[in-house]
């Protein structure tokens, strides 16, 4: 079963100065499961990489996606509709995070790889009592 990964986790992997960098690298070096990146996470991640770390960091990330080092998960119409519901229920969720939850529900995934403990801890997915937040 793959893991869904969010923007903060991807950014932390790229930024050696990020507080989560060491934990994310150690976790992913030991974890053989596929990392599944929702397409909604790509623009947010590339924006942060370019604006904070520069074009080289953004280019490396996009190249890793192109080389299929990360698996992409598309967004279905039902995911968008579910994202709207989630955003109404949880006013702290923006579209990217809501889409992550919607995709996790559709795929019936129990764990998220994220640095965002505050928000994802408060979400109650349809298929579980709560997500397991990794690392």
Structure description:
The protein is an alpha/beta fold. It has a single domain (3-134), classed as Rossmann fold (3-Layer(aba) Sandwich), CATH 3.40.50.1010. The chain is 56% helix and 12% strand. Strands 3-2-1-4-5 form a five-stranded parallel β-sheet. α7 (117-122) links the parallel β4 (111-113) and β5. The longest helix is centred in the middle third of the chain and has 13 residues, at 41-53. The model has no long low-confidence stretch (mean pLDDT 96).
Radius of gyration equals 14 Å
Count structural domains. Answer: 1
Largest sheet: 5 strands, parallel
Mean pLDDT: 96
Unreliable parts: none
Structural class: alpha/beta
Broad shape: globular
List strands and helices in order, with pairings.
Elements: E1 3-5, H1 7-14, H2 21-30, E2 35-38, H3 41-53, H4 55-66, E3 71-73, H5 77-89, H6 95-107, E4 111-113, H7 117-122, E5 132-134
Parallel strand pairs: 1-2, 1-4, 2-3, 4-5
Features:
135 residues; alpha/beta; Rossmann fold; 5-stranded parallel sheet; 56% helix
Entry summary:
With 135 residues, the protein is α/β, with parallel strands linked by helices. The chain has seven helices and five strands, in the order E-H-H-E-H-H-E-H-H-E-H-E.
